[in-house]
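Entry for the shared binder. Reason: the reviewer on the internal report wants the predicted structure included alongside the sequence.
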Amino acid sequence: MTLYLDNAATTPVRREVLEAMAPYLTRWFGNPSSTHEVGEAAATALADARTRVAAVLGMRTRDVLFTSGGTESNNAAVKGIALGALPRGRRHVVTTAIEHESVLASADYLHRLHGFDVTHAPVDGDGVLTPAALAAALRDDTALVSVGYANNEVGTVQDVAALAAVAHERGVPVHVDAVQAAGWLPLADLGADALTIAGHKIGAPKGTGILAVRGRVPLEPLLHGGGQEGGRRSGTPDVAGAVALATALELAEGERVAEAERVSAIRDAFIARVCTLVPGARLTGHPTRRLPGTASFVFPGVNGETVLLELERRGVVSSSGSACAAGSDEASHVLLALGIAHDDARTAVRFTLPHGLRDDLRPVADAVAASVAAVQSA
């Protein structure tokens, strides 16, 4: 039986989520903008889902927008907030070099098509952005700071509240990409002005997402049409998807503290065993300020993709990093930004653990050692 340890890429839909969304795919399938019984039932469910999400995030109901996923949410936040700041003469965006591609590409879009300056504030060798480094990157015309709460490849967790405080001292709004953090870390009281979540990372279907933007922040919409989602994201809402995401988020939040503590212990034992069994193995990311379910390594001298094939032969499925970059021969931009040598960065293997994991991972660590040895001897 295959053990799936690529949960940062996607997770299975939870049974409770399927049951919650099913009525809005069948009996109450209506368009929530319609004024008849079927449409009004859908509108009620959509409003309820929005309220439930807002409660978890510690934001107002009207701040919550439902989207098609993390990529759309990040694009809408970065582009929308930056473009919304143009009337105030602000044409500068601050982010880091270790962000998800959807953030980096959105910042590049602003530079290429709208003349924004983009500063990639430096992170240290563990992937941490310090408040001092952020402060040094800010300018009088900075429109937005966009930073990931937890890195999708190495799992490093940022002190978002401290970073937001620095930005707010200069009057700059902060967007937090919380796609990987949801279900593992607290989402309320971060000081974020905008926050993004992807449903499929927490047991909801793919194609569901959240962008929460505080009402005081101007947001230029990217999708125009019928003016749904308060005029900030046009298009007929996916009511079933919204119900699914609200249900998954509530479940994940309710389990979060206990799951984080238990899975962190399993993760730490796994890291220790891999580093003991595999000569030269190096943990990437911060040793302690990391997601409970993330253990990422480089194995200098071997090809990471080949190690993954050996692991799959032994019944373990994992990845070399971001699923968005899967199949690329390029070294990870995250690892390079951490100062890891190009050749070593191409040896990366990432293990991301599921909620509900109860077995220790000693057999997996043994499989990692065997797989690396098999590649070395090939």
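Summary line for the report: The chain has a mean pLDDT of 95.
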